[in-house]
Every structure is written in structure tokens, then in C-alpha cells.
Specification:
Structural class: alpha+beta
Distance between the termini: 16 Å
Order of helices and strands: HEEEEEHEEEHHEEE
Number of helices: 4
Helix content: 25-40%
Strand content: 15-25%
CATH class: Alpha Beta
Shape: globular
Length: 210
């Protein structure tokens, strides 16, 4: 369930170059609710038995947008605070929840996953400390904060990242599982801004996992 992840978009390792501060333009409307790629993605979502609502394309100004997005309704367990998500993000998130988090909870923690808590998806804002728009500004990111188990335990990123041995193992395993699916995965190991959540997005061309 573990995978090695290399760096790209986000300044990472010692000596890595920080990208210049700039506002990222909105994604090209060529990926939209009318595109072949979007239709293909919806087929993948259907194959995962995900329930969702297609959303209309929207441009909010200032480079913020929501093209080719859906609202996930059911991925097998309830998920809080989900808004617009690009279809590829929704498809990867569904697979991660179903094939990454749920089995890890069962095998490592000995209990079934019953809920995933998030801090949301779309938000028209820059990356903290920069002028570059966050992938949240394109409905292309999600922040995960906690997991509720059938035995009543609530495992949170803020409270349990450095918790017991088995809880630490669970959280690292699901992070590495995410690295197989998302292009950027950021955790409390990345910086202080991520002390209470796991950030996943589908921006850029490479893979960065920390």
C-alpha cells in the first residue's frame, strides 16, 4: 500500500527551486462539462458506483473557476463539506476512500470506516504566503481532516498525526495511498499550514508527496 513519490509542483526538498509567485490562470475551458474527457471521467465515476451530481461550468472572476466539476453524494461512506470538485479529483478521491482508507482502517485499526471529514473543496483564494491561486480556486483540491470509525474512534490529522503507533501507521499508509492517485499530497510533514489536514489536488504535471 506504500509508494515512493517524487517532487514537482511544490517546493520540497533541500535545494528545490521555489516557483515564482504569480496568479495561475483558470484552467482552459477545453476541459468542461461538454468535453470528451469529462464524459470519460463520468464513466469512470459510474464504474466506481459513486453517486454524484454534474455541475455547470462557472467562471467566478479573478482566475477562479469550476470547469468539468461534480458534487459527490456517496462514495460508500458519508463525507462532510464536499462542494464542487473537478471530475478527475472526484474520481481519484472516490478510489482513495474506497480502496485506500477503508481497507487500512479495517486492517490496521481493526474497525470499519464510517465517515470522512473534510474542510471543503472550492475556495477562491491564493496559496498561503504567495500570490499564486490555490488549486482550491479551480475546484481541483480537497482538504481531509478526520476519519470516524465504527467503534466510535475519531482519528484526526491535528490530534493524531503523532499519536499511537497504530494510528500513525494508519495515517502514513493512507497518505502514501493518496500519493498513488493525486498529483500533490501535503500533510503536517510538509509545513505548519497543514498541521490539521491532508491536502490533495490534481494540479500540474508531476507528482509531489510529503
Amino acid at each position: 500500500m506504500l509508494s515512493a513519490c517524487g517532487g514537482s509542483l511544490v517546493p520540497a526538498h533541500k535545494g528545490a527551486q521555489r516557483p515564482p509567485a504569480k496568479t495561475r490562470p483558470a484552467p482552459s475551458p477545453s476541459y468542461s462539462a461538454d468535453s470528451a474527457e469529462y464524459r470519460q471521467c463520468r464513466v469512470k465515476l459510474a464504474s466506481l458506483n459513486a453517486q454524484y451530481t454534474p455541475l455547470p461550468d462557472r467562471s467566478y472572476g479573478g482566475g477562479c473557476s469550476s470547469y468539468g466539476a461534480v458534487k459527490l453524494l456517496d462514495v460508500g461512506v458519508p463525507i462532510t463539506n464536499l462542494g464542487a470538485m473537478t471530475c478527475p479529483l472526484a474520481e481519484r478521491f472516490t478510489a482513495w476512500a474506497r480502496y485506500g482508507v477503508a481497507p487500512a482502517a479495517r486492517l490496521i485499526l481493526g474497525s470499519e470506516l464510517v465517515k470522512i471529514e473534510t474542510m471543503g473543496t472550492y475556495s477562491c483564494r491564493p496559496i498561503a504566503g504567495t500570490a499564486r491561486l490555490s488549486e482550491h480556486a479551480h475546484s481541483n483540491a480537497v482538504d481531509v481532516s478526520a476519519f470516524l470509525l465504527a467503534d466510535g474512534r475519531r482519528i484526526s490529522i491535528e490530534g493524531d498525526w503523532n499519536g499511537s503507533k497504530e494510528v500513525r501507521q494508519f495515517l502514513r499508509v493512507i497518505r502514501e495511498s493518496a500519493c498513488k492517485r493525486f498529483r500533490t499530497v501535503l500533510s503536517p510533514d510538509y509545513n505548519a499550514a497543514h498541521y490539521n489536514h491532508l491536502h490533495f489536488d490534481m494540479g500540474g504535471k508531476g507528482v509531489y508527496c510529503r
